[in-house]
Amino acid sequence: MPDISVIIPVYNASEFLEKSVASALPFEEVKEILLIEDCSTDNSLEICMKLTCQYPKVKLFQHADKGNHGAAATRNLGIEMSSCSFIAFLDADDYYLPNRFDVEKEIFNDPKIDGVFGAISVEYLTEKGKQEFQSKFTNVTLTTVNYPAEGKEVFRGLLGLTTKTFGTFFHLNTLTVRKAALQKNKLKFNEILRVHQDSDFIIKLAFQCYLKSGIIDQPIAVRGIHDDNRITKIVRYSPQYNERQFLLWNSLYKWSRKNKPYRDAAQHIYLQKKAFELSTKKGWSKTAALLMAICKDPKILKTKYRFTYTHKA
To answer: Which of 233, 263, 284 is the last residue before a domain boundary?
Structure first.
């Protein structure tokens, strides 16, 4: 049976935290639940302290300066402080379902498997949160992949480079990964990214480690959708959205220059980076940069740039 550290980054999550922790406690394979408190302005820290007193599995950590460092740095601290052979993640406003670790024991009997992932559903906690989520992710009640996949097929699927439609993605809450694989490949969350650091991490992980799909036809965890979900508040193809997308793809581009993924994957990453870089420009400089990009590689017109270019900057 795998021994698992569950890492929960905590920032202003007092309303949800106890339910989140309670969902991870019953699993025999979960040996510790690490609450990494990131300088909340509500009473999350007090709840964390209470939970550590109630449950021996629960441990509390903060950054050395007790400051706010964001989700990426907070998860990185959790990885550093974990003591188990396997790591799982859980957002403080989400929770696990009873089948969360049903396939881990069998799958990790194969030493080549570094990580396993599954499907996640949504629970609408507020009407406003529901409207914001559904306006961006129409009819998406289950975030999953469309077919069983493993190895490089997962990496290529995440970039949309497979012959079949891979699916909507997979969520960090459904990932269980060997800590040794993260250490061997020096994989961490990019602390420059205040959002999308999970997408950045997952794509890099899928190339550098051997991942395999687990339960993908039913949820193993639940996302809580409420008024304060940051990812649903940004208007798609707005200047703020484009800037955040550029930071994500620029991070992947810098990584690809060093790690040399497949040629079509490297090209895809470059074109996405360039498209969102262009979307941040204005006026004649934007037009000139677009024309130069088209001359260099006309495929840029097949990226999301065809949407971002028409948006008023």
So the answer is: 233
